[in-house]
Amino acid sequence: GESGSGKSTFLLHLCASYLGEDADRIPLFVDLGASPSISETRLDEHGRLPWHILPYLFTSRFADLGIEISVQDVDTLARLTPVVWLVDGLNEIASPEIRFALADAISVCVSRWPRAKFAVTTTEAGLAGRGTPRLFQRVDVDEFRPDDIDFFLDAFSRDQDSSLTGEERKERWEPLATAVRDSAELRDMARSPLRLTAMTLAYLREKRLPDSRADLLRGAFEWLIFNKSPLLRSYVRSGRDLRTIFAELAFQMIAKEEVPLSRVGRAWAADCLRPLDCYQGSVEDFLDAAVAAGGLLIPRGPGDLGMHEAFRDYLAASRIAAKTDHPETGWWSVLAPHLDDPEWHSVVALVPGALLLLGGSERVDLFFNLLGASCLNQRISLRAGRVALGGRILHELGLSGYRLSSAPRWADAVRSVRELFDEPGDVPLNARYGAAVAYGIMGDERLAHPDATWISVPAGEYWMGAQARAAGERNYDADAAPWESPVTKVMIGPLAIRRFPITVTEYRAFIEAAGYRPAGARHWTEAGWRWLSLTRAEGPLDWDVQLSVPNEPVSGVSWHECMAYCSWLTEQGSRGNLCRLPYEREWEYVAKRDITSSQFRWGERMHGGNEAEANWAGAFLRRKTPVGIFPASTTDDGVADLFGNVEEWCLDTWEDGRAPGADAAARATMRVVRGGSCIRFSRLCRPTYRSRILEDHRYLSVGF
Questions:
Q1: What is the pTM of this model?
Q2: What is the per-residue burial (b if ≥16 Cβ within 10 Å, else e) of 621-655?
Q3: Backbone φ/ψ region at 398: left (φ over 0), alpha (ψ -120 to 50), beta
Q4: Adjacent-strand bridge partners of 28
Q5: How many angstroms separate the CA atoms of 668 and 584, rounded?
């Protein structure tokens, strides 16, 4: 999870749970941020750490408390007794060499202690270039949903004033919750505990809502300094000096060493800050007071201090953005050497927001023009990574209202990644995703002429379905569910199907043509118009958020909305044909035409991570992607995204003979969906797998 997503809190919650009376394991908690630094002298000639480094880190905390326990004691405990190792903050280890070696050493411990369980937390950047350690499974922290946000705000209000009744608390937090629900940019910023905390603190201080992530962190920083730690002002000459000091320390933690630091020695920090002539007393006294006050500086083991990565990165970005616009001596000269360094990306991403706060949109245009120019004559993997970084920044700033006005070099760089859709090569999946998002924001040329995206499919016959009962019989598949049977020979007439799932760009045209208003009522079925009248929907779920990535599949649409779109598309005269949803027999025919003996066209299973052939759960994106960025799953006919990304509505009702235990009333309104999605596992993305959804329900993982 990202910095501030609640990983440490979650491990502490687990630790407390395992200390309960009914727990069956002993928790062994290791906070890597507060543990002793691991010297490179511990690495052997192969760059490996000894397996006992983990028990060593555990016992060192006991030593700080004056309690003696040996590495051998811990080894015996872990071998003979059920324990759970809770290892927090792998990304807190600055040196990638030490970090990866520790991950490998923990994997050795997994084999050494078969009775033990392990949970290790890290940010994405902490494993950049390495991936999930051996014997571990990656699990991502979920983002906050609207009901989580309400729960959080109520708890925050109760913590602020426990004397308030539930109604009084709600009166305080409801305006903020309503603003977040009604705003795509605020929902995006409120998706993690730290961001929502920062938003709440900034709102309490300034009685306004932030318009960018940099603005959000700025407001929280101001609250921490001037509300939570007012005594700090007595150690400096003016309140402005506090911003200068913390920004300088954050910048030095980012830039002074080869890798960004999350913890530093007190003496190291004092040396960095001593040249600033703004203290009332010594710099050491100031640092001691700042650590004692809490909030920004936190103790990190004996003699060390640290700063939460989110605040460190914001403060460093604000310090960089305060430099001039000169490309050789200003802020760009600081950023340019680190564009391809994942550990700098959070800082780089915050600089445009800080530029916007300091000087306006022209400086942000300059940032994108320089970023685009840096892509010239670079290999595709570097271009894609930089365009992905820029796309992420542009997407975030776009949510706050910024629009790029003049950056021709950036436009050239974005167009140059078009080849990724056909041949991604060795470009990492996250970079492919980000580059495709940027390409969509710029204007996806593949969608410029929707009528040209129809794929003609000839007539034919095939055996539909799968069965797991008899290995020697037709269409045997050990993963087949009962409702994939019976296996039936089916004849299919000639048809045409869209190359991609219907995208946000395409669906937007229907909305803008008054598709959800009385003028568009003729496109809705009687049941569909009744549904629309009851729900008062004005578009798909989270439509304002979906608009920010126009080349992704539209999702969060009911079956009724899909039917209305098809009717509208027919009226537009699309090649003179009737447009409708496919019957599931047609969908499966298209999906299986180039599959002979395997579950998928590439083999029996989907692969994970960067090797993923489709956007399924194992790709670890956990979100929709722009259409067509997984060419391995594109059929020989040229139809993309049939497997994963979004599940797709079919025309059919769920047939009685195949329904697994639904009552008659439910069956009448159940519709078939096919293809799996970004949150489905491999078995549920197979071409024969069938699922069902009530026709008036909407899910962000379902499109058409």
A1: 0.83
A2: beebbbbbbbeebbbeeebbbbbbbbbbbbbbbbe
A3: alpha
A4: 85
A5: 17
